Amino acid sequence: MTDSQQTTLVLGGTGRTGSLVARKLIERGLRARTASRHGADVLFDWDDPATHPRALDGVDRVYLVTPVMRVKYADLVSDFLDRAAGAGVRHVTYLSTYGSDQAPPEVDIRAVELDLAGRGAFTHSVLRPAWVMQNFSDEHLPVIEGAITVPTRGGAEAFVDAEDIAAVAVETLVDPDAHVGAQYAPAGPQSLAVSEVADIIADVIGGPVTHNDIDPDAWIGGAIAGGFVPADYAVMLRWLTGTISSGNGSRPNDDVEKITGRPPVTFQDFARRNARAWTLQAAK
Q: Is the CB of residue 188 less than 8 Å from the CB of residue 130?
């Protein structure tokens, strides 16, 4: 079977990175099968194992995106990986998180990495990206009444474009043998505080944008009360924002350029490309 005949199962295939991974694989002449609960090539529901066999049928590689807005999912993923091994999958690229080795024990991010590392039926690569730039242009960290509200205590982060995460993922899926056991940390080329992000967005849209560096408890409590996240997800939010607040946010590195052959996108370029998103937010 030639590479062009291989099929990659893209979990979260309608999501932020999954949709990009699928598109880029097709552009490279490979087959991509998107999987999600809605709008994908095949129905895939983590809580319904009956949807897993069809998704895996004839698949050689998997882009693994674990259940969203959850902290406990290691057993579900392990069962899926057992099935993937039985279906003949030979490589898995896992979308993890920056600093996954420091994740709280209540969160299963690291557990999935260790599960993959202990398997011999297929190879794997791990992506540990920085915070995604798209957080600021969608519903995660929107500009509301001229402010971005998130607790960081002035800490900095090397925000990365989802396009760059997807580009790195695609290289591991196009040529798995070249990335066996690899751990990459896609990051942007600048270490920025959210106040600096706000300044960049303000320059692009021509209007004032500030950073509301809110109390963490108030922010997390508001997210739960508003129904944006389940109560047990508080530990994840506290960890993610706490990493930046403590001065341990991600830093620029050469992983994107090393793997893709081109430098990562700057926040200025991202902001210019997505100016309309903030214009629409302001209009609401």
A: yes
What is the rounded average pLDDT for all residues in the chain?
95
8-to-89, 99, 184, 232, 261 alpha-carbon distances in Å = 9, 27, 20, 32, 22
270 alpha carbon, distance to own chain's centre: 16
Identify any residues that bridge with 212 across adjacent strands, giving them in sequence order. Answer: 149
How many Å apart are CA 203 and CA 51, to the nearest integer? Answer: 47
Judge whether 96 and 127 are in contact, CB under 8 Å.
yes
For residues 96 and 128, the answer to whether their CB atoms sit within 8 Å is: yes
Contact 30, 5 (CB under 8 A): no
Q: In a 3-state reduction of DSSP, which class is residue 255?
A: helix
Burial class (CB in 10 A: 0-12, 13-18, 19+), 242: middle
Instruction: Look at residue 139 in the predicted model and tell me its pLDDT.
Output: 86
For residue 109, the tally of other CB atoms under 10 A from its CB is 23
Q: How many residues does the chain have?
A: 284
Q: In what order do the strands lie in the sheet with 143-144?
A: 143-144, 147-149, 210-212
Band the pLDDT of 2: cuts 50, 70, 90.
very low
The token duo for 8 is: 């990659």
Distance CA 22, CA 10 (A): 7
Distance CA(20)–CA(22), nearest Å, equals 5
Range list of H helices, the chain: 18-27, 52-56, 74-86, 109-117, 162-174, 194-205, 216-225, 234-245, 255-260, 267-273, 275-283
Which pLDDT tens digit goes with each residue over 139-174? 888 999 999 999 999 999 999 999 999 999 999 999
Q: Is the pTM of this model over 0.70?
A: yes
